[in-house]
């Protein structure tokens, strides 16, 4: 493997300057390379390039300027090949031409800093379907997301996580089939629109995290495939493994993490998003297929693991304060361990130990099928002994697709906006916002968006009005999670104790705190039973009045809710559940109450 420090090549691709444009491209097996474009009549004889010992070709074109279209023309053993620049910041389409791009942008006054991890609330969205109100076949754009930022800010969200926006085949996609990872999808508005979006989100106090895909590329519309004509075993050539390691669940296009040039290519892409687009962090898709061949520990890819370590180290050195999140879902604690002790250095990872048991606990059709022991374990799971090394959720793009639906739909297929769907989906949401971890919503979850996620079906914003009470429920939960009223600091604290668990009555209670004491200690009680709980007694950490801060059965949240008479609790001396005091309360069916002093 080449040393990354020695192979770094600033200015790969097209760099515009006062004297024209400088072009660089890596093509070690090409016999000749020239740059062709709108500035030279696409004539391969006009601007030949020269190669160095590593196969990086350099050329200058005084006639070229920002906005010109171009390609690289490679003479190879396979004949003449026309290729889009792998580093192109802008393209005319996934199978079109590269465009000489002006990277400059007015970032003045954009000194935004993302919230601390224990104070983040993430909202995952897909640009193409988030606010698609046009009556045509085109997907929504960044402008449509901008139009709804006010909704997200009122909801209390302070981090948006955007599904991948690298140029992909076609106009509609989840984004996990990147054809050109340095170029922003034109159907979404392109690079300038994305920069404007990030700056506007920052101005409204909202961070932007971008989903990136490095476990595979393409596999369609992929100019990187056999880029300079060379390959082995009829596989992908210089950018890919050319043996069995090429295979992934999405195609045989796994990048060659053992190649210094490919490692640099991926790392340069990471740093581009952070520097040129000012994104506040990155979510790495399916890291189990970067660190291993097949997602198992038995067939590891050491060079994939070292790549993740190197990238996170570079981010820490050059972009301090930015966050990285791994989507691995294999309970690999080393992902979020420090690099110095052999970890990969991610700040957090999506937690399958939370989403699966919580969803099962509310989706199960019969109360006796709900395991509160599984709920307890989901609440208490930690990576690296840190509550905020995990992202927790009940809905995500994966959790509500691929044969699965939104939680309300899973609860009641026949009536996904009825009483059962409302009660049990909000029960799951209350677990998300009261459990230790970084809470995340998926687009439309706050107004009972139904069915499965598809990239052709926009979310229904009419439901935002129809279920404004449920939206308020989410807003109240987020406000408590972020301690907006100064009385629930413990919900963003490190510590959790499940002190009461009754499988027969389906009641679980847990204590959240940071330092303890009034305005910090929080007690959360959840009823996973179809029936209300009256005269129910649990332990409390201290005597006195425990104020009811939230009752998910409140009738203002939904006309369908009973509004069971849940009230403040007077905790009296007398040991219960390991606490020195106890109190009696009532709680509605499938409901959650939050108490603090």
Would you mind describing this structure in some detail?
The chain is α/β, with parallel strands linked by helices and 597 residues long. It has three domains: 4-99, Sandwich (Immunoglobulin-like); 117-481, Glycosidases (TIM Barrel); 489-596, Sandwich (Immunoglobulin-like), CATH 2.60.40.1180. The protein has helices at residues 4-7, 127-130, 142-146, 149-155, 190-203, 260-275, 288-291, 302-318, 352-363, 372-380, 407-411, 419-434, 462-466, 468-481, and strands at 13-17, 20-26, 32-37, 50-51, 56-61, 69-76, 79-83, 98-99, 122-125, 159-162, 166-168, 178-184, 207-212, 281-284, 323-326, 348-350, 390-392, 438-442, 495-502, 507-513, 522-527, 533-540, 544-551, 569-576, 579-587, 591-596. Strands 9-10-13-14-15-16-17-18 form an eight-stranded parallel barrel. Strands 19-20-21-26-23-24-25-22 form an eight-stranded antiparallel β-sheet. The radius of gyration is 26 Å and the shape is elongated. It starts with a helix and ends with a strand.
SSE blueprint:
Blueprint: H1 4-7, E1 13-17, E2 20-26, E3 32-37, E4 50-51, E5 56-61, E6 69-76, E7 79-83, E8 98-99, E9 122-125, H2 127-130, H3 142-146, H4 149-155, E10 159-162, E11 166-168, E12 178-184, H5 190-203, E13 207-212, H6 260-275, E14 281-284, H7 288-291, H8 302-318, E15 323-326, E16 348-350, H9 352-363, H10 372-380, E17 390-392, H11 407-411, H12 419-434, E18 438-442, H13 462-466, H14 468-481, E19 495-502, E20 507-513, E21 522-527, E22 533-540, E23 544-551, E24 569-576, E25 579-587, E26 591-596
Parallel strand pairs: 9-10, 9-18, 10-13, 13-14, 14-15, 15-16, 16-17, 17-18
Antiparallel strand pairs: 1-2, 2-5, 3-6, 4-5, 6-7, 6-8, 11-12, 19-20, 20-21, 21-26, 22-25, 23-24, 23-26, 24-25
Helix pairs in contact: 6-8, 9-10, 9-12, 12-14
